[in-house]
Amino acid sequence: MFLNLWQHSTMHAFFAMAGVVGVLTRCKFQIPVGLDHLLFSLALFNEGLLFYTHSSRMSALDKYIHYILLIPILSGAVCSLFEVWFRNNPILELFRTSMFITQGTWLWQIAFLLWGTSSWDHNDPETYVFMAICYSWHYGSVILFLTWLWLTNGTLKETEGLILAAQEQAIRTNAIKAKIEKSADDPKCRLCKETDETIDHILSCCKKTAQTDYKQRHNCVAQMIHWNLCLK
Fold this sequence. Notes:
Elements: H1 2-24, H2 35-54, H3 60-82, H4 90-116, H5 125-153, H6 158-167, H7 174-181, H8 199-203, H9 212-230
Helix pairs in contact: 1-2, 2-3, 3-4, 3-5, 4-5
C-alpha cells in the first residue's frame, strides 16, 4: 500500500518540479534555454519507469494495458528531449501534445477496464488484440481532434499579420518599388509570388506568412520585447 502511494507521489513530484521550472522560464529569472523541456522529459522517463514497476504485481491483462501506456509516455519523453535543441518546432509540439492527450485518454480506459466492468476474459487472446485496436482508436481520435484544431485555429489573425508586416518591413512592398519607385521589375509578393505585394495583401495574411519560420520569428521577437520591456 505504502509503495503504491510512494510511486504516485514521486511521479507527481517530478512533474511538479518540471512545472515550476516551466513557469520560471516565462518570468524574469535567467533560466537556461531548454531546461523546461529537459525536466519534462526526465519526468516522463521517470513516470515510465514507475509505471513499468507498478504493473509487476498485477494480472497479465493489467500488465498488458499498462505496458501499452508506456508508448505515449516514452514517446512524449523522447519528443520533449528533442525540443531541448529544436524549440518551437510545430511538428514536435503537435506530436508531444498528441502523446499527452493519448496518455490521458488511455488512463481513463485503464480505469474503466479495471473497475468499470468484470466481463473481460483475461485468458482470451482476443482480449489482448482488442486492447491494441482500442489504443489505436484512442490515438486516431486524438489525431482527428488536433487536425480539427489546426484547421480552425492555425491561421494568423489580422493583428498578428500586422505585426509580421511591420517586422518584415513590408510597408515598402514590391508593388511600391515597381509601380512608384521604379526600382523593381516584379510587383509580386516576395513570399507567395502569386499576388501583387501590396500592404492589403500582407495584412490579409499571405499564406506564406503564416508558415513556421515567419510565425516563429514573430513569436521570438514578441517574447524578447516582453522580457526586456514589460518585465523590467
